[in-house]
Amino acid sequence: MQTVKGAQRQVVVVQTNNSRWFEEAFFVVRRDARRTKVAENDMLLEANRILRESALDVGRTPRRRLPRAVWFFIGVAIGVAAALLLLFLRTAT
User: Fold this and answer.
1) Own/partner long-range contacts of 45-54 (Cβ < 8 Å, ≥24 apart)
2) Which residues contact 83 (CB under 8 A, 6 or more apart)?
3) CB 14 within 8 A of CB 2
4) Of the chain's two ends, which shows fewer C-beta atoms within 10 Å, N or C?
5) What is the pLDDT of residues 39-75, one digit of tens each?
6) What is the DSSP letter of 38?
7) Which phi and psi (to 5°) does residue 77 adopt?
């Protein structure tokens, strides 16, 4: 762990070897984590977990959602189609 100069904060530095954009990531350690004497290895594992989860979100494009009005009209169309099918089946027998 490294300490930031001029501050009383501890920082975990994680080297990223397989990133096209980043060389390293800095995580500022919470004050209460220092009091609980968390193992450095546990902090590194947590930092790597956060980086992995963040990397999954970077390449993902947000899905476009259909507006509620479109879903309403789709529901109406399905309802009308079902009613017409029942009407057709009732008159066919």
Assistant:
1) 47/12, 47/14, 48/14, 51/14, 51/16, 51/25
2) none
3) no
4) C
5) 777 877 888 788 777 766 555 566 778 889 999 999 9
6) -
7) -65, -40
What's the start-to-end Cα distance of the chain, in Å? 81
- Alpha carbons 35 and 37: distance in angstroms, whole number: 5
- pLDDT at res. 82: 96
The token duo for 1 is 């762990």
**The tokens of 6 are what?**
């001029």
Please name the amino acid found at residue 14: V
Tokens 């800095």 found at: 26
Distance from C-alpha of 47 to C-alpha of 83, rounded to nearest angstrom = 57
Token couple for 65: 């959602």
The model scores a pTM over 0.85: no
Please, which residues have CB within 8 angstroms of residue 71's CB and are 6 or more apart in sequence?
Answer: none
Task: Say how far apart CA 67 and CA 73 lie, in whole Å.
Answer: 10
